[in-house]
């Protein structure tokens, strides 16, 4: 996956970053202070188990790989929060249509500071459609890449997975990716495994990562 980190680095270096003046400890947020910090922090493989801020669920390689291979026309995220993923997906796929879906309109910075949903993406003026809805109720067509990172319990993940499958592109390759496929989120693991068994999909996963994905063309 070195190739994909190189691809990510190349795309982030082109990004029009609007620096975010974060002074706290969170390194994921601190990386948005400058282009140099952004590239250095996010163009790394995952860290060790339970490492703060950059653990096995660090998803940048997988999003870079899928973006490089697929050149998606339409990306959809289930789960918004501060929307680091939105920024990464937009910078990887600057010509793609991007939608993020969440039932909430507000989220929190460290220290329980209430902020608008999607703060980082909005701060960076990322072109994105923000939909306030249950993600499993979001009906769309022609979704090339769906990134599922919303409610991490069994039934919401199961319903999100089926919705992503129904929304998939029918005229080209498509992919679904899930965040936090690990022992700390057994509902994610069980729902994803059941979804793949039901549809006879083979799940893809790197040994040192907790982000998983599948690809198809029908």
Concise account of the structure shown:
The chain is of the alpha/beta class and 218 residues long.
Features:
two-stranded antiparallel sheet; 218 residues; single chain; 9 strands; 36% helix; seven-stranded mixed β-sheet; alpha/beta; 18% strand
Describe it.
This protein has 218 residues and is of the alpha/beta class. The protein has 8 helices and 9 strands. The protein has a 7-stranded mixed sheet with strand order 5-2-1-6-7-9-8, sandwiched between helices. The longest helix is centred in the C-terminal third of the chain and has 14 residues, at 154-167. The chain is globular. The mean pLDDT is 94.
SSE diagram, text form:
Layout: H1 2-14, H2 27-30, H3 35-42, H4 60-70, E1 74-78, H5 84-92, E2 97-102, E3 106-109, E4 113-116, H6 119-123, E5 129-132, E6 145-148, H7 154-167, E7 174-178, H8 186-199, E8 204-205, E9 212-216
Parallel strand pairs: 1-2, 1-6, 2-5, 6-7
Antiparallel strand pairs: 3-4, 7-9, 8-9
Helix pairs in contact: 1-3, 1-4, 4-5, 7-8
Give average pLDDT, whole number.
94
Biggest beta sheet summary: 7 strands, mixed
**Low-confidence stretches at least 5 residues in length (pLDDT < 50)?**
none
**Percent range for helical residues?**
25-40%
Rg computed from alpha carbons, rounded to a whole number of angstroms: 16 Å
Backbone shape: globular
């Amino acid at each position: 996956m070195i190739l994909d980190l190189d691809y990510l680095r190349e795309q982030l270096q082109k990004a029009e970053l609007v620096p975010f003046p974060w002074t706290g400890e969170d390194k994921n947020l601190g990386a948005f202070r400058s282009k140099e910090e952004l590239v250095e922090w996010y163009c790394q493989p995952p860290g060790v188990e339970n490492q703060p801020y950059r653990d096995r669920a660090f998803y940048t390689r997988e999003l870079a790989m899928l973006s490089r291979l697929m050149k998606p026309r339409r990306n959809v995220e289930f789960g918004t929060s501060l929307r680091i993923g939105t920024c990464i997906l937009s910078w990887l796929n600057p010509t793609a249509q991007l939608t993020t879906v969440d039932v909430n309109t507000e989220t929190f910075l460290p220290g329980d500071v209430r902020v608008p949903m999607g703060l980082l993406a909005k701060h960076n003026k990322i072109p994105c459609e923000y939909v306030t809805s249950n993600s499993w109720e979001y009906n769309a067509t022609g979704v090339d890449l769906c990134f599922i990172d919303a409610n991490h319990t069994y039934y919401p993940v199961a319903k999100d997975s089926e919705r992503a499958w129904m929304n998939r592109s029918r005229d080209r390759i498509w992919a679904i990716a899930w965040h936090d496929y690990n022992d700390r989120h057994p509902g994610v693991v069980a729902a994803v495994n059941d979804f793949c068994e039901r549809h006879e999909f083979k799940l893809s996963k790197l040994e040192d990562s907790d982000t998983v994905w599948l690809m198809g063309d029908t």
